[in-house]
Amino acid sequence: MKILMIGAHQDDNEFGRGGLASKLVKLGHTVQFLSMCNGCGGHHIMGPEETTRTRAKESAAVAELLGITYDVWDIDDCNLVADLPTRKRLIRYIRHFNPDLVIAHRPNDYHADHRASGQLVQDASYLLTVPNECPDAPAMRYMPVILYNEDRFTNPPFRPDIVVDIGSEIDLKLKIASLNVSQVYEWLPYTYGEEVPEGEEARFAWLKGMEITEDTTDAEVMAAPRGYAVRYAKVAARFRKELIEKYGEERGAKVRFAEAYEICEYGEPMSKEMLEALFSF
Ligand SMILES: [Zn+2]
Predict the structure, then answer these.
(1) Fewer CB in a 10 Å sphere around the end CB: N or C, the chain?
(2) Per-residue model confidence as pLDDT tens digits over 165-224
(3) What is the rounded average pLDDT of the residues 63-75?
(4) Ligand 1 centroid vs 141 CA: distance in angstroms?
């Protein structure tokens, strides 16, 4: 199957969907990332052009490690708008790739670019099948299934329709997070006022936040203040009930790292076949 993951920015796919992306590639599916913005806004020392160039190199490294294709559009960060030209551009883009499944942001989010990106996917979804809309790009016969990746916003709350154990992918997911050097070691710590330790090994340990083992409890994970291993472990802790429902008491209780997805009601309904093919690991 063909899976298109659409983020506003270059780390959105990596952080929210990276474990699933890695697993799907290993299962033989084709995965493509799209970042609708060019990354120009994400640095406090480099200017916009240098930041864009740096982010492009980091995304290329992610694509190579994951075994995916990765497109970055030329829209400046903080300038993504759910307007007609961008909607038409997205319709043509999605039709060209012709995905079975699209993963997007929910349109409720703190960041204007995330909101616009989620809105654009919603606005495009039905029109993908309308031949007289953008007639230069052949219409799809059916809409793709559309999922939203997990977030922590509560109005309305995220609904974990699908949960997956990404324990087998966690090392790779942390590695792809760390390939976004200018973000995870420079820009984001700057925005949070955090000190990053010197040296490759020390800073990777810092990136993780804490070592999470079989014995780490959900309470310890939820109390941990920061780190990417912590962040991905919090998803498992938050959705423990759903993990136990899916995997049974024994495995479900032991899942340390998870990703969760909400089914968007504006795409094609999720079929049993797709659920089994893509989410039964
Ligand atoms: Zn983002």
Answers:
(1) C
(2) 999 999 999 999 999 999 999 999 999 999 999 999 999 999 999 999 999 999 999 999
(3) 98
(4) 31
Q: Calculate how far, in angstroms, residue 194's C-alpha sits from the geometric centre of ligand 1.
A: 19
- The DSSP string of 108-162 is --SSHHHHHHHHHHHHHHHHTT-TTSSTTSPPPSSPPEEEEE----BTTBP--SE
Give the predicted TM-score (pTM) of the model: 0.96
Q: How far is the CA of 37 from the centre of ligand 1 (A)?
A: 9
188 C-alpha to ligand 1 centroid (Å): 11
If you average pLDDT over every residue of the chain, what do you get? 96
Summarised one tens digit per residue, pLDDT across range 118-128 is 999 999 999 99
Sign of the C-alpha dihedral, residues 8, 145, 149, 171? Answer: negative
- The rounded Å distance from CA 135 to ligand 1 centre is 31
To 5 degrees, how large is the angle CA 172–CA 173–CA 177? 115
215 Cα–ligand 1 center, Å: 32
Instruction: State whether residue 209 is helix, strand or coil.
Output: coil
Q: Give the containing element (helix H, strand E) for 50.
A: helix 48-66
Using 50, 70 and 90 to split pLDDT, how confident is the model at 255? Answer: very high
How many angstroms separate the CA atoms of 129 and 131, rounded? 6
Taking a 5 Å cut-off on Cβ, the residues next to ion ligand 1 are: 8-9, 12
Residue whose C-alpha is closest to residue 173's, from 280, 258, 262, 54: 258
pLDDT for 77-119, tens place per residue?
999 999 999 999 999 999 999 999 999 999 999 999 999 999 9
The CATH code belonging to domain 2-273 is 3.40.50.10320
CA of 133 to the centre of ligand 1 (A): 29
Distance 184 CA to ligand 1 centre (A): 12
CA of 77 relative to ligand 1 center, distance in Å: 9
